[in-house]
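Risk register update: the risk of archive-format incompatibility is retired. Evidence:
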Amino acid sequence: MPNLSRNALVARLSGTTKGEKATVAGNLRLLAPLEPANGGTVRLNEYWDIVAIDSQAIELLNCPLPDLEGRDFWEAVPETITELYQRPTLKALTTQHRYAFVAHDRFEDRWIQYTFRREAADLVISIRDVGSSQRLEQLLEDSDRYNQLLFEVNPNAMWIFDATSLNILAVNQAATEFYGYPRSDFLTRSLGELFPDGADAGLLSSLDAAAGVGKGAPEPLLCKQQKRDGQPVLVELACAHVSWEGHRAVLVSIVDVADRHLAERALRRVNASMEQELAKSQRDLKSANRDLSAFTYALSNDLQAPLHAVNGFAAILSDKYASVLDESGRHFVNRIRASTRQMAKLVDDLRTLAQLPQLAGAPAVVDLAPVCRLLIEDLRRHDPGRKVTVEMEASLPLWGDRNLLVIALTCLLDNAWKFTSKKSEGWIKVGLQPGAEPGELVLRVSDNGSGFDKAYSDKLFTAFQRLHSSAEFPGHGLGLAIVKRVAAHHSGRQWAQTGATGASFFMAIPQPASVQVLSPNT
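Archived output:
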């Protein structure tokens, strides 16, 4: 833009001629700061010569003080600013008393605001660094662009309507695809056209209610939306008050939940069916528990009494009438007594297996060594002719239910005693060892008995499963099943190993972190 003659502009502004300007005398004065820390002041005479200036203005003009003498204001600012703003400023001040503009100082990379005020024949210019304001405005503009970008690329269908007129102000691409309307057509729609059943009234009420209790947004609303082809679709609608291009508006986001709704209905039907099945299973379980209680009562009372009677009469025959019985008769009587004892043992084990949960008590640290010694003494007393060496640690501390641990140890020792019966010199070893899992202890009972076939090891702990005939080793196959039940009660496990020297049986019991129980051999 070409520069105007300075004298011509001055003449337009103040009516002073070139000859009159030459008579003006004025020395440059340094003003005390008149503006805040980020502002300065310059005073001009009617010819636009600088007659007074403060230090802040000098710093903002980036011009040393001696160079300002004899210059008018437009010579003190950067040339680009003069080119852009001299003509508009002079023109504006011919009709108004105040004018301002903001210019960018590229050399200093800062934004400067110049404000001109007429005071009688003089001009006062306020100069202020507005870089922070400009940066904030730029951030706001960037934020608006970023929000618009997020709105446009969001995969959820979104649209915005004016909170007063209810006219739709904006719509994103996902919404145009969901509803089937072109963007230009969508923006001509009213709020009610998208709600086939008048649910827009419910939406507005929920917005007002949320605002009334101080919430920014109401709870998501389950409603129907009307597509372009007239098809209603079930959606979950969320909304919130926003400011959009100067409008008090509401942002709406919708998610198609038709498939989810159908899936939930199917899930509810499945749940209802499962609840019915569960209720039936619970009734069946209660019935089975009642039958088990009746069976246990029969074992404890109805079966025990006849067995005691048979065994008692057989004992009388053996004691009082042995002289009149021949060898075959005495053999038959002994067979009867042996069978009744085996039957009584079976009844006891069945009752123990059935009543195991009722026998449980409070868990604690139990030393199984004294228990083991008493059980071995009892086995020797009933079978005094046996020669069996027992190796056992002095202390066997194990955390668990005392009643159940004693039952399990009894079964394991009975098992070892029985399967070493054909050895001229048998041995049984009892000990504790660390388990494979952290904090786990394992009760181990080993013997040099007949062992078992590894192919059938998975059947060892199943009730009534026997790997040897009753003629070879008497028994009924419940002892190890009881051990398995005790291990399960303690959230533990059990297993067995066999080899050329016999077999070993293990029962692992988790030990709580608060209880420090260690085997002596660890």
